[in-house]
Structures are given as structure tokens and as C-alpha cells.
Amino acid sequence: MTSPTEDTRAQERFDALIAADSRIEPRDWMPDAYRRTLVRQISQHGHSEIIGMQPEGNWITRAPSLKRKAILMAKVQDEAGHGLYLYSAAQTLGITREEMTQQLIEGRAKYSSIFNYPTPSWADMGAIGWLVDGAAICNQVPLCRASYGPYARAMVRICKEESFHQRQGFEILLTLMRGTRAQQAMAQESVDRWYWPSLMMFGPPDEHSPNSAQSTAWKIKRFSNDELRQRFVGMLVPQAAALGVTLPDPELRWNEAEGRWDMSEIDWTEFREVLAGRGPMNAERLRARRAAHEDGAWVREAAAAYAQKRSAAEAVAA
Ligand code: FAQ
Question: Mean pLDDT across the chain, nearest whole number?
């Protein structure tokens, strides 16, 4: 038990570290609400990477060439790795990997809305890389400066890999856009489907973002949802022109007077439906994750038995 004076001093130290833009480390005292916010965000982020393997995993057996298959496999493997870094970062806050997995497979945890959409065409591999990884980078580069050390450090490595992913997606779309009319149409159709969901990845508009004020005060978030969405659109416009694809928003234009992009209203009803578990692929994503967990039970048992055998052998040798 700590005394009220000790608690006040700990809080003051925490506030001073945040004010000085220093990092909070796992051994440091932190308010319970800060810990809970980080567990929430980091575990959701980890779940997104893990569930995020499914839409692309769908194309590994059908990639159009051996080279494309190898690249796609490497990308999906990177996503598994990102999930593991993030789960490890969350574990430093006191939650176990098993708890996080249970929350996910029981449908109690959120993961990014974007992974509840289907991938019916090969061009979707390009659109996911260009738009989904592009949005992920925009959101995650500022998280490299998040106040919690293990999260910020995980982000540095993740962002390096995401920027490679984004380029490979762009290159898939560029190849299609330099191809036949049918390939160009496939690329455009895919961009039309992924554009709006990728804008939703940044979260609700600022005035409906309940967590933003506190997360910004704690320097977990450095920019608001709408600021990052604007930055993302600004990044896409010249890239879309280079690709020769049209962004599916007739209202999209630069507003010189206000220094921002004007755009059509995002369909927030669709966003809320996806978050409520009623998106096109929510049920399938959870079913597949649950099945993978159950199918992997023997691997976990074998690994635990091996670890026990090894530590028993080490105890005898010592
Ligand atoms: N989907 O008050 P806010 C990737 C929830 S990784 C689902 O604004 P906050 C890599 C939010 O959790 C993509 N839920 O919340 C890849 C909150 O609910 P809660 C994942 C969403 O936390 C690429 C409620 O709405 N990236 O793509 C979404 O301040 C390709 C109210 O929202 C991250 O997780 C959404 N889109 O801001 C992998 C980045 N948006 O928890 C494979 C880290 C909001 O109170 C292939 N996370 N919600 O019940 C963040 O930066 C923040 O958590 C935000 C949301 C910006 C997502």
C-alpha cells in the first residue's frame, strides 16, 4: 500500500515526465487510466494486425506469379510479427497474451474496421497496400513519439515495414494500370471499394471521439483523427494522379482559403455497423480466428510440454 503523499509524488513525477516529452517505461508508476488506455489501444492494434492477415491470406494460393506469391507471403508474415511486437508491448502493462486472445476470439475486443471487408479481386492486394498500409503509416508515424516507451519503439520498426508494404501495393496497382483495359478497370473498381473504408480507419470525427482529449493530453495521440485523415487525403491525391486512378469522391478539392481538403460526408452509419459486428466480413473473420486458435491447441500443448521437459532437464544438470 502506498500513502496519499507517495501517490501524489508519483503522479507529479509522471506529469513531469509527460510534460518533458520523456518516455514512460514499464517500471514507472502510471495512473490506472493511462495503463487501461494503452492496453485498450495497443491490444486493439495487435488484434488488427492478426485479423489483418486474413484478407490478404485469401490470395496467397492465387497470386498471379511465384514472385507475387513470395512477396505477399512475406507481407502477411510481417503482419504476424507486428501483432507479436504489439502483444509484447501490451504485456509490459500487466495483461497476458492469453487474456488478449480470449477477448478477441470471444468477440469482446475491437480491431480495425478495415479488415471486415472482402477481397474478391487480385487488385485488392494493391489497394490494401496502397490505401490501408498508407493510412496505417499516416496514423502510426506519430505513434513512434507516443509517451509509452515499448509502444513507441515497436512502432519505429513497424513503420519501416509498413512503408515497404505501401510501396508494394502501389506497384501492384501501377502494373495493373499499365496493363489491359480489364486490368485498369479491376484496379479502379478496387480503389472505389477501399477508399472510404480506408478513411474510416482514422476513427470517428473529432467531435465524436471520446478518447482523443485524454490520449492527447497523455501524448499517446499527437494529432487528431480528422487531422490525420486530412493528411492522408493530401498524400493520396498526387499518388492517385501518378497511378491514373480516380478517387471516388466528386466533392474532393483543396480549399485554399481554409487550407484543407473539402470532401463528401463519410458514411458513419456504415462505420458504426462494422464496429457493432455487422460489417460484410465480421462473422467470418472471427470464425476463422477462432478455428485457427482451436486448431493450434496441440502446438501450444507440445510447446508447453517441451518447455517443461527442458527446465526439468536443466534442474537435474544444475
Ligand atoms: N476500427 O475515441 P476514438 C494496420 C473505436 S493496423 C475499429 O477516436 P481512439 C496494419 C475506438 O477504439 C490498423 N474501432 O478512439 C495493416 C474507440 O472504441 P473503444 C490499426 C475503431 O483510440 C495493414 C471508439 O471507436 N491501427 O492497418 C476505429 O482515441 C494492412 C472511439 O474512437 C491502429 O490500431 C476503427 N477504424 O482513436 C495490417 C492504430 N476507430 O476502444 C494488415 C492505433 C475508432 O473506446 C494489412 N490506434 N475505433 O471501445 C489508434 O491510433 C487509435 O486507437 C484510433 C482510434 C485512431 C484507431
Answer: 97
Residues 6+ apart with CB under 8 A from 300: none
Please check whether the domain covering 31-317 is classified as CATH 2.40.128.110.
no
CB 209 within 8 A of CB 225: yes
Report whether 18 contacts 29 (CB < 8 A): no
> 0.90 cut: is pTM over it?
yes
Cα–Cα distance, 49 to 44 (Å, whole number): 9
Compute, in angstroms, the gap from residue 261 CA to the centroid of ligand 1: 22
- Residue found by looking up cell 496497382 in the block: 173
Q: Which atom of ligand 1 is nearest to the CA of 140?
A: 39
| 8 A C-beta contact, residue 229 and residue 268 | no
Q: Cα separation of 94 and 24, whole Å?
A: 15
Task: Indicate whether 258 pLDDT > 70.
Answer: yes
Give the residue, out of 112, 114, 202, 219, with the most ligand 1 atoms within 8 A of its beta carbon, to mutate for a pocket test: 112
250, pLDDT greater than 80: yes
Give the residue, out of 110, 212, 220, 268, with the most ligand 1 atoms within 8 A of its beta carbon, to mutate for a pocket test.
110
DSSP β-bridge partners for residue 255:
260
Mean pLDDT (whole number) for 263-284: 98
> Per-residue pLDDT averaged across 125-133, rounded?
98
What is the residue with the minimal CA distance to atom 28 of ligand 1?
A: 203
In angstroms, what is the span from residue 249 Cα to ligand 1's centroid? 23
User: What atom in ligand 1 is closest to the CA of residue 139?
Assistant: 51
Does residue 2 surpass a pLDDT of 70? no
